[in-house]
Amino acid sequence: MIIALVDSGLGMLPTAGWLRHLVPGSDLVLVMDPDGMPWGAKTGEFVTERLLAGGRLAAERGADAVVIPCNTATVTAVDELRAHLEPAIPVIGTVPAVKPAAAAGLPFAVWATERTTASDYQAGLIRRFADGVPAYRIACPGLAEAVDRGDTDAVDLAVADAAARTPADAAAVVLGCTHYPLVTDRIMSALPPGTVLHDSAEAVARQALRRLGLDAAAPAPDAPATPGSVSVVLSGRDGTMPAAALTHPLGQALADAAHVPATLLTRAVSQVPARV
Question: What pTM does this model have?
């Protein structure tokens, strides 16, 4: 079984890690776009073009499913990619975990890229699930880009800026960009003690398994004797895991095509039970 993930950069690592943990015998194709990243501040036309190109490449590589572990790409162009690939190849998108955050009934913030923050899709999620619950939309300029570069100083600056603009009464923060779970420790250190974080990487991985007809509720198996492969495509070219990814234990495990234990995964306090 081949599962492809299409994103501009390292935002795919948390979802790829969950897929590797849950189905270690599957082959993963990581379709990144270093030439076009970051997507978060690009135009809708640009993001759509790059996503469709990545999706077509995934299909050419024999993907049984295509996962878009990127909020920006999902809210911008998931319908276009589905029109090209489905029903032959299921396409699984990612949306911010607004529903579980709002379910607590307490004010919360959604940290995301500029494009996702400004999207009608995110606004619609908030209207649908947070009716009457204060929800603050916090754009995080430069944060995803800093994660992609492995620039910890820039990460800390961007996190500090977002934290300073997050109202004090926000009891939770939705990680509305898939890059952000890679720096959860830095985010938590900048927020008031007790702030709850929500992200959707595990839920998206399990939804991909459901779309493939597998038991997404089953516990992860032990590491197989022969693990599946992990291949990397960089803007259409065969390549290797970017150096910045190797600064994260999860990125190194994927580069080694190793089994990913639960200890390497960011376990969100609450997962969005999305069918995206």
Answer: 0.87
